[in-house]
Amino acid sequence: MTAVNIIERRRRMGLLRSSLCAAALTLLMAFCFTPPNQAQAAEAVPTCNPSATNGCVNGILQDASKKPIAGVELKLSGAESATTTTDANGNWAFSVGKDGSYTVTMDESVAKEHGLKAATATVKVEKNSFDAARQVVRFDKPAPAASGSGGSGSASGKSGSSASGSTSSTTASSDAGGAGANIGARFWQQLYSGVIFGLMLGLMSVGMNLVYGTTGLSSFSHGEQVTLGGLMAFVGTQILHWPLVPAAIAAIAIGGLTGWIQNEIVWAPLRRKHVGTMQQMIVTIGLSMALQYLFQFFFGGDIKGIVKSVPNSFQVGPVTTDSPTLISAGIAIVAIVGVSLFLYRTRLGRATRAVSDNAALAAASGINVEQVVRIVWIISCAMAALSGVLLGVYLNGISWNTGATLLLLMFAAVTLGGLGTANGALVGSLIIGVVADMSSLVIPNDMRYASALAILIIVLLVRPQGIFGKQQRVG
Q1: How far apart are CA 90 and CA 305, in angstroms?
Q2: Is there a single domain that holds both residue 114 and residue 205?
Q3: Where are stretches of biased composition, namely Low complexity (predicted)?
């Protein structure tokens, strides 16, 4: 070995040792100066988004006539403590880092002045479910006798978030009673929540399945149409100050319009150029990512509330619910029934089913396939926008990635029910919704979607075409 080689080798070894020392020093500094990933302490925040490290205790302070009360000091006590003041719209929020019971208190004179029935309220944030913990506190209802704290208010919330897509209504006052909750009541509550969520999911999935049936395209951007509907309803109610119904109608119209624009600008030209469905699917993935970041850029990363008032909850047998939830479920049922009547009782609907079964044969029989596909895109995106509005009302908010988080469940629903069949998408969605919510009775809340996907795998092993799918196409 020459002297030059020896020098070069020593130089490289020196560089390697220097690099290793620098890496070790960097790791040591990161370990010493970077705080560990611990739960955050309670703090007052403008808006609170649940995550893996923090839960939320929040609400809207209103008087007896549902008008917001601004500038009221609220104190949080319990596992952690903090203080905040309601904003101009009566909004307030605490981010908490520990599980346990929390009490929110205001001055009794303020409660009496505005006709509130309580000056304190107690809620419980459950352990190991911070990413799905959002307790809405209210002071306009008297405390149930079971709470054991005279003058205490009540809290009602939907445990779940727009990121997960599923909710289960609970009353916080029952949590205050400890671990003696009735498992039977919880069973019916979870079943009810699963059916409601399944209807919402079905409204999204039916449109997705119609697009697949007529074009063979699995659209990964369908979730963004759901998000668009919810955000447009937020713009209508909170920025333009419209009533909810006109804002919802405008959101649905915008959703249908975007479906027509997509088809005319993107999908129809790609079909005319005979671009394969696999390449088109990749385009939908890019469109999905672009729309997500556009939503985040224009609307931010927090949850946007379509309505600000806290609905009054009531008991129906063993189930706790509220009027917006029942109305949303009713609208979803009407919309799904309307689509079914359209498909089976109208000439255009029969043409749609013909195109879904065999597009070439439908074209040979005189059906304008392009016109049918255009109508399907409009209906599909309008239904997705409607589901976004209903989901935003049901979940008490919508965020920039709500649709994206539900996309996997949509695909599971349409695959379980049978690709290309509208009724199959509805049945698959109900199964996914019920299984997901019921499974949280026996497994951690964070794993509830895994059980639904396990059901999907089992069904497909037994019946690969899905519940209502055809084993093979005719023609």
Answers
A1: 13
A2: no
A3: 155-175
